Queue: 3 jobs
Job 1
Amino acid sequence: MIKGKVWKYGDDINTDVIFAGKYTYTVTDRNEMAKHAFEDLDAEFAKNVKPGDIIVAGKNFGCGSSREQAVIALKMAGVAAIIAPSFARIYFRNAINEGLPTLENSEAPLHINHGDEISVDFEEGKIIAADGKVFNFPPLPPSVSEIVQSGGLVPYLKKKLSK
């Protein structure tokens, strides 16, 4: 279970908005990537996001290029999960690879507001809004859950191969 403050954004947030393409080949340090997250959309995000915060967005989150930095920037900034009605498939896969949970729910984004404090119970598949309203999502499959708990695909594989 996680509990965090909500950063809310709209539909079709693309990878260039999450991590600007102008940094793709110049910013390679993962911690530095976090400093540029949402830079052109929300100048306050990178300065004020806290570990455990949650992004709630509209449909098609992460559309655009296959830029992995768009996931890395949010994870390194401390984002604990992203909730949206839908995700671009490549972004969804990159998020699993980095161990950043992406949760699909079409009702929660309509009800939850920027700045709310919400909880997410991954095992039960529940998003609990600030007012106590509960929204369900399919729990992560065991294999995906294990990758997320390991911190991403590379740490998961290293752990598996060292056994």
Job 2
Amino acid sequence: MNAPLQPAVAPPTPARPMILVLGGIATLSGLLVVLVYHLTLPRIEANRRAAVEAAVFAVLPGAARRQSLWLDEAGLHHQPVKGGREFHAVFDGDGRLLGIAAEGVAQGYAGPVRLIWGWRPDCRCIVGMRIVGMTETPGLGDKVASDEAFLANFAALEARPTADGLEHPIATVRHGRKQQPWEIDAISGATISSRAVGEAIARSAETLLPRVAGLLEKLTVEEEG
């Protein structure tokens, strides 16, 4: 009587070659990611600089020229310095100082909200704000970049520098509760995103304006270059 046939058993796959193949694929994938990052980084940086420059001119009406400066404990610098805080002196067509513009960032609902704000020394107030980067919810949180009523908060938002901060800290309040010129009226349904804008401006202005206010006479268009 013939013995029953046994099912064929596939020979075991050697573990070492499999590990080597998978390791090679992972290494190659990592190298490709790094390569793509380095190839696209210059374009990303160029786009970021262009967005910042456009925002600087937008937040100070009448702007014709700007000069990037860096401020550290030693004073003003015309070139980037380690640990220095960048801001922009902005001038009109006749070379008169209009004000300064600077960047602020704070955590929003879906990620960081980055913006540029503009400040004029004649009114001691912020006269413009422009979002330069965010990932807020479309149709809701992202209204901080386009809602006309919200943007009106920054037509003359009081920001009076003192020796160590602002006379009245900038604060975001719930929609419809704005009573003071240093308050920001939030967008209904987008309070977190609205507060991120307020926090970004407040943190930036509170650290920068007290020092810059004492250096305004040094911000001349002749220094540009």
Job 3
Amino acid sequence: MARTTGSHSDITGPKVREAALRLFAQNGFAAVSMRAIASEVGVQAGALYNYTPDKQTLLFNLLSTHMEQLLDASIDDLSQSPIDRLRHFVDFHIRFHADRPDEVFISYMELRNLSADNFSTVEALRRRYEDRLEGILQSGADAGDFVIADTKIATLAVIAMLTGVNTWFHAGGRLTLDEVIAQYWDMVRKAVVAG
């Protein structure tokens, strides 16, 4: 029998993804076997293939789902000023990622383990998200509100800075998330705002 008694696809499928996410973040994609994922979930290794054809597909689904959720949740209100749009982006990016440290970690550290086609798909999703920020920065530069020599470099720098919060922030630490966001907004604003 491949499936543990009492397991159901609507319960076990998400457990497989959660276990893979946790194990990939803790140990790295290459070090995690399908058998280890199955053990974590409490099913036999062969049962995993009811939920994913292979480990590569599982990694791809985790990375692409993270990016799709990020894109779906982010909103850029074009009726706002570029400075307000940028402030909203900073706030949104930090808050969205604060609750997803494992997703953020594997999204950056495990890209190299995707097949070429899967890498291209995830990179396209990442570019769509980066393009949203670059559009905000370009609008601010065009309006004379921002002074930016290269909007692409500024985009990558801001995203790297904001995403870096996940490497050190912990709820219950010295600063609240709101205090962290306020300080990061101040740094981003000073980096791009004219005068």
